[in-house]
Design brief:
Elements (H helix, E strand, L loop, with lengths): L1 E4 L2 H18 L11 H13 L4 E5 L5 E9 L9 E8 L8 H15 L4 E7 L3 H9 L3 E12 L2 E11 L10
Parallel strand pairs: 4-5
Antiparallel strand pairs: 1-2, 2-3, 3-4, 5-7, 6-7
Helix pairs in contact: 1-2
């Protein structure tokens, strides 16, 4: 098992496959339509321009087993110390502790980049993700009830937050 910095050239198709599986078969993403490779090019460009990591774990034959990332929480300047993160594991590799490893890497990255809060938006029925976040020290800070509709049912979105002891010297503006 190896940690990698994911790139469009080497990992876009694998990330696309993981995301599209989540879109069509779960409520991990509140989306209806599978994404395209062209959309992944834009996604990677946004990550690069924001200096946001895309971290992955590969197995011994270099297959991507899961990935994690974060990005802008809200686009207003006062939110500059907050990020919203995501962790996705390939269906064949769930339950192996990879999510915990990826979140640890994200926390380390957010700390180095001087962010103060990490936010996870999780379908409240996704007990595995809720438990993972709670195990990693995230606190449930609120739920928006019936915020989305997918698979012929209303979905509740929970927010989980981790406060970091950074930045060392926050500034306005």
């Amino acid at each position: 098992m190896n940690f990698v910095n994911c790139t469009y050239k080497h990992h876009a198709q694998a990330i696309l496959d993981i995301l599209n599986t989540a879109i069509i078969s779960s409520t991990a993403l509140y989306d209806y339509t599978p994404r395209t490779l062209a959309m992944m090019a834009d996604w990677f460009q946004q990550k690069d321009s924001g200096n946001f990591p895309v971290l992955g774990i590969t197995n011994n034959v270099d297959e991507l087993m899961g990935f994690s990332t974060y990005g802008t929480f809200r686009a207003w300047p006062a939110y500059k110390y907050s990020v919203e993160h995501s962790v996705y594991i390939h269906v064949d590799h769930r339950g192996k502790g990879l999510g915990k490893l990826l979140i640890k890497q994200l926390i380390t990255s957010a700390h180095k980049q001087q962010y103060h809060t990490m936010i996870g938006a999780i379908d409240i029925a996704n007990k595995a993700s809720v438990n993972l976040h709670e195990d990693m020290g995230f606190t449930h800070v609120g739920t928006i009830r019936q915020v989305a509709y997918k698979f012929e049912r209303w979905l509740d979105l929970g927010f989980y937050q981790l406060l970091l002891n950074t930045p060392e010297k926050p500034v306005d503006g």
